[in-house]
Amino acid sequence: MKNNKLYISAAGSGKTTFLVNKALELDKTKQILITTYTVDNEEEIRKKILKKRSSIPSNITVQGWFSFLLQHGVRPYQGSINEMLFENDIKGMFLSEGNSSIKNDEQGKPIYYQGRPLTYGENDFKNFYFTKNWKIYSDKISKFIVGCNEKVNGEIISRMSRIYSHIFIDEVQDLAGYDLEIIKLLFNSNVEIILVGDPRQVTYLTNHYKKYTKYKDGNIKEFIQNECKSLIDENSIDENSLKKSHRNNKAICEYSSKLYPEYEKSEPCDCNICRSNVSEHEGVFLIKKENLDYYLEEYNPIQLIWDKRTEINNNYPALTFGKSKGKTYERVLIYPTSNIKKWIKDNTFDFTKFENGKKKKIKDAKEKFYVALTRARHSVAIVYDYKENEQFEGIQKYKI
Amino acid sequence: MKISKLYIENFKCFNGAFTIDFTDDVNILVGNNETGKSTILEAIHLALTGVLNGHYLRDELSQYLFNNDVISKYFLDIRAGNNPDLPHILIEVFFKENNFPKFEGDGNSDRSKATGVSFKIEFDKDTYKLAYEELLKKKFETIPIEYYKICWKSFARDGITSRNIPLKSVLIDSSSHRYYNGSDIYISRIIKNNLNEEQRADISQAFRKLKETFMGDDSIKAINEQVENNAKISTSKKVEISVDLSTRDAWETTLITYLDNVPFHQIGKGEQCIVKTNLSLSHKKSEEANLILLEEPENHLTHSKLNEFIKAITSNRNQKQIIISTHSSFVANKLGLENLILLNANKVSGKREKFYFKKLEDTTYKYFEKLSGYDTLRLILCKKAILVEGDSDELVVQKAYMDNHERKLPIENNIDVISVRSLAFKRFLDIAKELNQPTAVVTDNDGNYKEKVTNKYKDYEKVKCIEIFADENKNLNTLEPQFVNANKDNLEILCKAIGIDCTIYNSGDKIIDFMEANKTKWALSLFETSEKVKYPKYIQKLIDWCDEE
Fold first, then answer.
1. Do A71 and B106 count as a contact with CB atoms less than 8 A apart?
2. Residue A205 pLDDT class (50, 70, 90 cuts)
3. Could B157 and A155 be called an inter-chain contact, meaning their C-beta atoms sit closer than 8 Å?
4. What is the model's pLDDT at position A357?
């Protein structure tokens, strides 16, 4: 029986290296696809392979998730889902954020009804899936594939399974909606599937389509447990192999774990290699604005910001939380948002807010903060003008 | 790996859509000139390699690739204000095996699951829509080929190059396409395909070393010094003589294959054809078993060389698929008539049609395989065939036809008179029956009409396309007494016509005796005479049959 697996990983546990090693260890006759959602991570995977080999081995393909879906999911049988697609080429993908298939007026502006844009329904095939210029909406790709695969009696998945013997998906927590259905179909095929992800780091979502919504916020484990029950066994979900962080020290592991008390705490890897160079400045700190220039000069941390509007010291490099995902730095300096500050003050703050009388999640704040916290090997400093008498849990006040 | 089907649309002589199926082993394309045999080979090769006439088509798109009628229709529609779409060319090669999933999908003219490649030459709408609209406002007489692009895709709609097509084809034709410097494009490709990556790297290395040795040679050094000092070719850059290493596989364009110390392109064309074929037959990479496309191999080969060649094909084929075009009955007979695919231009529409011979009986094609000298293709390719038993019959039938058709030979009206030994008649008729080819048999009754005619040709009694012409009178058992009988009222003219003295041959019997003793002689005289003789009734009927529609 084939061995489908989901590895739940901690930040800095080396999951990408782990995947790359798995792929390189396999027999040369196996055809392996390594795919992931973000371009940055795709590049990271390539770099990791090239560290070990002079070129990407011919039996390994590294490809972005959408690119893979377009090439092997959408195009091979596009005509079979709708005759129109025999005549028209699909001109690529339109990255849709939020709503897609929006109805426009003659000037090309969205038509609103009761404050919401009107959208095309599924019965209008062309406008539901495609832009005017035949670009497929990114949030509809996997739905298209699932529908098309049904029309051709599973030929799409069958074709994939004859091309690839193994499909590895990195950062699987980013997949949502019908993407999960595709994972389920692949679990049920001949392809051996390895999923790796950190449910705490859902910073991007492939789509916001209303399918499997309850599994969308990092609940990949629950998805596999509930929806793929018959396709897995007791060894299919592994939460231990990638629990140790090769990056973060003990203080960082402990502090970041406080954000997600429901998951296993991450631990610092205690091997000699990981712990060989301890610096004189280790841990998690709060730092007052007045000390920033000195701190930057002294420790040269990378500045992590929510977005470009954050005021920073432009003499030192900076990166948004989102962009820092997957990266490792010696030291980081985090500019927290007001919500993050609330949590630092009170760890029971649950990153929700009230909008029109309803309780709503504050978009990505917790996940991104987790990413930012877990970038550093030695030290994390958070810009926070604390009062001397204030008390904070698990964090030190930085003093010059 | 085999191909099962070819689809052609608007390419050269193919007006509209045309499909042709192939068997796994040998396929023999026959047909008159201009029926599309070579075009089929070209189309397959183009779709699998991107190469046409030894060049990458990418750089050489032209209007002449398009079917003439399609272009005429486009311009008629333009003038009529119908706003037609610009014509396109589409070639699709369907693979038989389905273990190449990357090439599998519904992106083909069947619009269903299949494995293969699609090669399309089409108007580049995305880039040139506006330019074309501008052009439409003016008067233009040729297809704006500069607005066209080549779309080369798998049936999964994935862009491809010849490199990732698992099927390697070799086109061996009699015209030779060479690189400008003399290296033969096919032979280099065949050799290259035979090498693995390591061997290719070795050649490149060795070639580079050759360059270094060349450059290191004292005389070259001296020459280069002189060039550098004297020549003011370039004011700032160093000028020197060297070996061209500019392309990745420089050796491929520069190295030449030698046979017995003679450069490959200097040996006879026939020998070249044999060498190329043998090379491609011995292709090592079995997983990339190639497809061999052979164009009219008989062209530069003597009969004995042709025999050698056919033998090489049949004995070394090793499951390789071969598609061959030929005009030679010998080639067709030897390779097996059951493998024939006949191409035809429809008399009314001009569209190409094909006909497969699969149902031919075993014994018939085996017969022709052994007696391969028979002109089976003549029977197949003419409009109507007349089978006769010998030279004199052939001459008489020709003459009778000429007398009725203002001195035109039957072949000028595409009616072929074929002389066949009596035993082979039935074999030829089997082919005619299978093909529904109008065929007449002219035969003597040999004094026993029932046995020699009725019983012998019983199997063809109900076959519409076959007619047997013979006389029932058992006393007139052969052509000679028939002839004398037909002219019994004016034996003098008959004597004149066959070149004898009517005072010596003064009776019918004497004339018959002479004729029987000098069969070819009298027939030749008759053929050349201007005298008007009468023909036996059954021959007259045959001539009438020739004129039936």
1. no
2. low
3. no
4. 66
d(CA B442, CA B535): 13
Mutate to test the interface with A, among B106, B124, B149 (most CBs of A within 10 A): B106
- Which residue in B348, B267, B270 sits closest to B306, CA to CA? B270
Which candidate from B111, B113, B158 shows the least CB-CB separation from A75?
A: B158
CB contact under 8 A, B105 and A86: no
Contacts of B155 in chain A (CB under 8 A): 76
- Please choose, from the candidates A368, A381, A378, the residue with its C-alpha nearest in 3D space to the C-alpha of residue A303: A381
The span from the CA of A323 to the CA of A305, in Å, is 10
pLDDT in tens, B409-450: 999 999 999 999 878 899 999 999 888 899 999 999 999 999
Alpha carbon distance A103, A318 (integer Å) = 39
The answer to whether B26 and B37 are in contact (CB under 8 A) is no
Tokens of A259: 């954000």
For residue B367, which phi and psi values (nearest 5 degrees)? -60, -50
Residue B279 has pLDDT above 80, yes or no: no
B416 phi and psi angles, rounded to 5 deg: -105, 125
Beta partners for A37?
Answer: none
Chain A positions touching B111 (Cβ under 8 A) are 79-80, 86
Closest CA to B114 of B132, B97, B127: B97
Buried (b) or exposed (e) across A120-129, using 16+ Cβ within 10 A?
beeeebebbb
pTM score: 0.82
The alpha carbon of residue B144 is apart from the nearest alpha carbon of chain A, in Å, by 22
Residue A1 burial (CB < 10 Å; 0-12/13-18/19+)? Answer: exposed
pLDDT digits (tens, 9 = 90+) for A264-307: 788 888 777 777 777 889 999 999 999 999 999 999 999 999 98
What's residue B182's pLDDT?
A: 45
Determine, for residues A159 and B99 on separate chains, whether the beta-carbon distance falls below 8 Å: no
By three-state DSSP, how is residue B31 classified?
A: strand
Query: Does the structure show a pLDDT above 50 at B48?
Result: yes
Angle separating helix axes A220-227 and A178-187, nearest 10 degrees: 50
With a CB cutoff of 8 Å and minimum separation 6, the contacts of B62 are: B145
Burial of B244 (0-12, 13-18, 19+ CB in 10 A): exposed
Count how many residues are written for chain B: 549
Task: Calculate how close chain A gets to B349, using CA atoms only, in Å.
Answer: 28
Query: Alpha-carbon distance A120 to A126, whole Å?
Result: 9
Residues of chain A contacting B, Cβ within 8 Å: 71-72, 75-80, 86, 89, 91, 152, 155, 159-160, 162-163
**Best to test chain A binding among B113, B127, B149, B153 (most A CBs inside 10 Å):** B113
